[in-house]
Amino acid sequence: GAGVSQTPSNKVTEKGKYVELRCDPISGHTALYWYRQSLGQGPEFLIYFQGTGAADDSGLPNDRFFAVRPEGSVSTLKIQRTERGDSAVYLCASSLRGSENIQYFGAGTRLSVL
Amino acid sequence: AQSVTQPDIHITVSEGASLELRCNYSYGATPYLFWYVQSPGQGLQLLLKYFSGDTLVQGIKGFEAEFKRSQSSFNLRKPSVHWSDAAEYFCAVANNAGNMLTFGGGTRLMVKP
Questions:
Q1: Chain A residues closer than 8 Å to B98 by CB
Q2: How far apart are CA B110 and CA B83, in angstroms?
Q3: 8 Å CB contact between A35 and A44
Q4: What's the number of CA atoms in the CB half-sphere (13 Å) around residue A30?
Q5: How high is the pLDDT of residue A99?
Q6: Nearest one of B57, B55, B56, B34 to B45, comparing CA atoms
Q7: Which residues from chain A sit within 8 angstroms of residue B53, using beta carbons?
Q8: Residue B81 pLDDT more than 90?
Q9: Whole-number Å distance between alpha carbons of A25 and A92
Q10: Per-residue pLDDT reduced to its tens digit, A60-96
């Protein structure tokens, strides 16, 4: 079946602009996660959705970052007033609900802020 | 707070040689542990996981890992490396709700012909 799909695969923007990154999870997966991977580092947790609600947003770095999942499937990560330090690969993952969660990752969106 | 350390940033092995990638974790309870592999331009692919039970777990592509509670380690091994194994490998631990992964910094594996 189809895996986690992220669009766009690459996004180049200018400092101060607004960007949206989209994630389509695996069909039937109720949990969805966003991570950020900076160059040469491991992914860092940003936010976790269970259904439509953000169950844990403790990893969002500041209020310029926001994510939604209005119908419990597709999610959008929104970044306002982008800064050069926001340049990274943004990874999305999804999993079936349950305590023994296996997260399946998309290929990511590479964001470059010039 | 949980944390993961992968002491080796780069490792180079010859094709056909054995491989061990180190992972140490810090977590207050019984951990959920994972190894993922990332090839250039691709997402993270799960190699194997440990939740409970047998401390030696088998994964895909001939990989295995051993959970050692006394050493807080979860090292990844493969008896004979193939050129296609060249990639970046990440160890991760899940929180007790299983909904947040904390990753190590990764180990980049290069395979010499």
A1: 98-101
A2: 8
A3: yes
A4: 9
A5: 55
A6: B34
A7: none
A8: yes
A9: 8
A10: 999 999 999 999 899 999 999 999 999 999 999 999 8
